[in-house]
Amino acid sequence: MRILTRYFLKQHLGPFIFSLIVLTSLLFINAVARRFEDLAGKGLPRQVIFEVYLYSLPHILALTLPMAVLVSVLYCFSQLTADNEITALKASGVNLRALLIPLVIAGVMLAGFMVWFNDRLLPETNHRLKILLIDVARKSPTFNLKEQVINNVHTEDMRTRFFLQAGGIDPATNLLRDVVIYDMSVPGRDRTVYADSGRMAFNRQQTDLFLTLYHGWVHELRDSEPGSFQRVFFTRQMLELEGIGNQLERTTQDEYRSDREMTLNQLDAQVDSARRDLEDVQREALKYSTMAVQQVEQWTPNNVAEGASRRAAVELRMLQAREESAKHRINQYQVEWHKKFAIPFACIVFVILGAPLAIRFPRGGVGMVIAVSLGIFGIYYMSLIGGESLGDRGTLSPFWGPWAPNMLFLLVSLWGLFHVGREMSTARTGGWGELWISLRDFLRFGRRRKRA
């Protein structure tokens, strides 16, 4: 039995690693494509871009680990069944359910690792990714002037703003020719600067722009003095703009964390805090409603009683809003707490689910493995997202929201595991046609049962 155990584990290791790399790579490429528009064109250092994608990787791994387990189990058992190895083991009196015990133990170990991963590593990387994306979003686009185009130039505080047009720009020497600047910094003042040439320069930190203009003049007109017009000639004039560059400012500390950026202990602390807030709100609402009723009963004038009733209604509505907010926070934190265990538990469920399916339909090959895996992944994660949403709103219990997909697939897995010993599949059955017939019979059975 030990030889079979080592053989089965060895057969699953290669497909598991391969499917994990492929699935993670596909989702990672999708993440790169989605982030590319936000990162491109901002002159970000390579280290920052590398950090963004590095912090995105743990979230992808949390999804692909259970997926890789299912793919490896489906592929290995379908291959073993197609090669008649499962049939030979049955003929030798080997209990196939006993062969699943080492795989279930490996699934339990992987689920334990994922619980630690989701509790310790994933919240911290999600928090750092959020901070980094906020810093990147605050970063202004790369300062780049285009020739023969009116360029909008402004500082970060918007105190200095003007439109610059240059007939020619030499990017090697930062030399400008035929420069026209429309200064819109001061309201009520129209100021236009004309120069034969100019030169741009930045400070060492690339945050301030120094624009030196040569051989030009300035036209200035004020709304307060419509009859006056000022024209000043210059040989050399310098403009300094602070905060025009695009230096990335990294946030060092950010104490606020969302539910997906918290560990189990932090989620427990937030649930306790929200429960205390809920109890305080409920006591305050009860106290205020009782006090308001007593005051209304004591005041005899109708206008006074009506005013007290209105104030009581307003205060009670505000307290009800605070109560709903506290309940929503409790549900949200509890749902996230259960998710940290529910998703790792899927590793165990997929081990039990994949073996009966692969033994029942072995001839589909890689195509059937991919099709069945995608179908199960879609159903599982759609159910997980829907259950999470219902749990946050309080429609479902915070426990059943994340755990319902696991329970559903676990029941199907146990049913298939109960019948796996009775299957006598060979390489001549269990293909796509038989899978279609099984699905058709299942749907017909459902309709007949509904009619009955």
Biggest β-sheet: strands ordered side by side in the sheet: 1-2-3-4-5-6
User: Biggest sheet, open or closed, and with what strands and sense?
Assistant: 6 strands, antiparallel
Radius of gyration based on Cα positions: 34 Å
Morphology call: elongated
Distance between the termini: 48 Å
Give the low-pLDDT segments.
423-432
Number of domains: 3
Mean pLDDT: 80
User: How helical, in percent, are the residues?
Assistant: 55-70%
- In total, how many beta strands? 6
Portion of residues in beta strands equals 15-25%
* Helix and strand pattern: HHHHEEEEEEHHHHH
Topology:
Elements: H1 2-39, H2 46-82, H3 85-91, H4 96-138, E1 151-154, E2 161-170, E3 175-183, E4 189-202, E5 209-222, E6 225-241, H5 264-298, H6 302-360, H7 365-393, H8 400-419, H9 432-451
Helix pairs in contact: 1-2, 1-4, 2-4, 2-6, 2-7, 4-6, 5-6, 6-7, 6-8, 7-8
Task: Please describe what this structure looks like.
Helices cover 64% and strands 15% of the residues. Strands 1-2-3-4-5-6 form a six-stranded antiparallel β-sheet, with no helix packed on it. The protein has three domains: 252 residues, no CATH class; 91 residues, no CATH class; 72 residues. It has 452 residues and is an alpha+beta fold. The chain has nine helices and six strands. The chain is elongated.
